[in-house]
Design a protein that fits this description.
Elements (H helix, E strand, L loop, with lengths): L2 H18 L14 H14 L9 H5 L4 H20 L25 H24 L7 H23 L3 H26 L9 H27 L3 H30 L6 H13 L15 H8 L1 H25 L1
Helix pairs in contact: 2-4, 5-6, 5-11, 5-12, 6-7, 7-8, 7-9, 9-10, 10-11, 10-12
């Protein structure tokens, strides 16, 4: 009975995302405007795309590569190779196309290492959920909120793998909305845990919890609607996620430091250390260099940098519940 409403909500959410894919706003990069690139794509399509996608290998067709997409991919690398051979490195001969670096495709995947590192983050959440279930009692009020964090992480990294495998309007929206949901739930969870809104006493806490839940759902819905039906604004999306992320990071840091001062338990400082780690990993995004060997870029390294703190976070969540259970037993 509990799963049916949840399933309906997920179905409505997915239908909404499908609808959102029809509202698009493209952004051009420097490579898109290069005359060599435009001419290459035009000639390739004229010479190769008369008979549909029959010339595309079966594996690539299975990965939804069409003849025009194949021409676009091929010309990106033809033009990039020419510029690298012709221009000195200080002139930055490698440029972006359609907002992305020209990655070397492997097995039909556009960004192999971002897919692999996203998959490792998925596994970190998967094993973290299993560890949390095994080591904490199901009756504890915090467990369901911590498990929901894990399920949100599984969805987020699934969408990330899909997007980095093939960049479509749908996979892009799933990736951005999934990441936004993860950040928003992080703030929701921080508030629930720090102020113990999971508890039923005093009587005002359930009311505050329902109010906070409503506010977070409303904010996320407005965020998704703005991006989908008003403006697909990358700058706004980045700022919104950074602001929400900074607020929850500040909450966790203050909470962990104050808790350590009260208890003297070293593990209570883990949230602060994890936050610092993630901030340092996120700073890789600022580098944004052309990918090494056309495979590994700053974004993929950011995904790599979040694997260990993700696994570490579940160790903290487990100890947090275990410590609370031990405290309740001492009171009893």
């Amino acid at each position: 009975m509990i799963l049916r409403p949840a399933a309906r909500k997920l179905s409505y959410c997915f239908l909404f995302l499908l609808l959102a894919t029809y509202v698009q706003q493209s952004s051009a990069s420097l490579g898109d405007h290069l005359p060599d690139f435009k001419q290459c794509v035009k000639i390739c399509k004229a010479e190769n795309c008369h008979n549909g996608d029959s010339a595309i290998p079966f594996l690539l067709r299975m990965m939804f590569w069409s003849c025009p997409a194949e021409c676009d991919y091929t010309c990106q690398h033809v033009v990039t190779d020419r510029r690298v051979a012709r221009d000195p490195p200080m002139l930055s001969p490698v440029v972006q196309f359609h907002g992305k670096w020209p990655f070397r495709r492997i097995l039909g995947m556009q960004e192999l290492f971002s897919v692999l590192f996203s998959g490792l983050n998925f596994l970190a959440h998967w094993y973290g959920i299993s560890h949390l279930r095994e080591k904490t009692p199901s009756w504890h009020p915090l467990q369901k909120y911590y498990l929901a964090f894990g399920y949100c992480g599984l969805a987020t990294w699934t969408f990330s793998m899909l997007f980095h495998t093939r960049d479509f309007p749908l996979t892009e929206k799933l990736d951005y909305f999934g990441a936004g949901a993860s950040v928003m739930y992080g703030l929701y969870l921080a508030t629930i845990r720090i102020f113990r809104l999971d508890q039923e006493q005093p009587r005002y806490r359930p009311t505050l919890r329902r109010l906070w839940t409503t506010i977070c759902i409303l904010l996320y819905t407005i965020h998704v609607c703005y991006l989908s039906f008003w403006s697909w604004d990358y700058t706004y999306n980045m700022i919104a996620n950074i602001v929400i992320g900074m607020v929850q990071n500040a909450l966790w840091i203050v909470f962990s430091v104050v808790r350590y001062q009260k208890t003297g338990k070293s593990w209570t400082l883990w949230p602060a250390l994890i936050v610092v780690w993630i901030i340092l990993a996120m700073s890789l995004e600022l580098l944004d260099f052309p990918p090494w060997y056309a495979l590994i870029d700053a974004h993929s390294l950011w995904h790599l940098g979040t694997i260990i703190p993700c696994a570490w976070w579940y160790l903290y969540l487990t100890k947090d519940i275990q410590d609370d259970v031990a405290g309740e037993r001492l009171k009893a």
